[in-house]
Amino acid sequence: MTTALIDRFRDRLPVSETTPVVSLGEGSTPLLRAPRLSERLGVELWLKWEASNPTGSYKDRGMTVAVSKAVEEGAEAIICASTGNTAASAAAYAARAGIPALVLTPQGAVAGAKVAQTRMLGARVLEVRGDFDEALAAAQELARRGTHVLVNSVNPYRREGQKTAVFEIVEELGGEPDAFVIPYGGGGNTSAYATGLGELGSTTPIYSVEALHRPTTLASAIRIGEPVHAESVAAAGARIVTVSDEEIVDAWRELATLEGLFCEPSSAAGLAAIRKGAVAGERLAVTITGHGLKDTEIAERYAPPLILVDADPDAIAAAARR
Question: What is the CATH number of domain 59-154?
Fold first, then answer.
């Protein structure tokens, strides 16, 4: 039987015995050794596979806490702005709690699979004529009016849940890595990791990896022009690394072909930083934030082409050798 994240880390989270636990079995995700990449890169590489969370991304860690606290405080509905993963997570946990979810997505900027997932989970999805920052501002205003509880990472309960990934990594490694490496979109996860490390009394560095062209990157999950947590990221002393879309794609394909992990493009940002020599240390923990099935449109663009053959063994053998 799966233990809810809130129950596993109850002593480290802002919950009480009366907090209703809204859970889908999140957390306790695998920490996978990457032997082939480790050999190629000359480091001891560990991959925190957050894609195994219920909705396919790390967002579920924070959402279980945010929605549980919202229900405890009498919320009748939740709202978020999203480039996709927060949307799906909010929709799922709202459905689990039995309350409505309103999701604002920037027009044309969210992977279709994520939108479909969110809609199937019952959320009301509105496509905003504008970018993520404008959608978030609108969501914040509606939250101030008291009609909805905002569950973006500006909600402190979200970051409280997300910090638990640090505890799991340290526990599973039997000690701290030389560095934590994570994608950098809005900066909420960097802020959360910094909180977790602070609670452990650790000074292990965090490398936050952003896309070179934030507003237009193909890595849609980190397509955020103005990181809302930029000040917190700076205050945490995180080391910012910038990678190009080409570097992200190369790392993304390598994760799949060498280690068998199909993630969404943004999740490969951390590996891209290591491949370019921008991360110091011998034992590195890289967080893979979301599943590849979240963004199959981009995968279709970069995957090897399908080959049509006759149902003939000789033809199939010949095609296999090409």
Answer: 3.40.50.1100
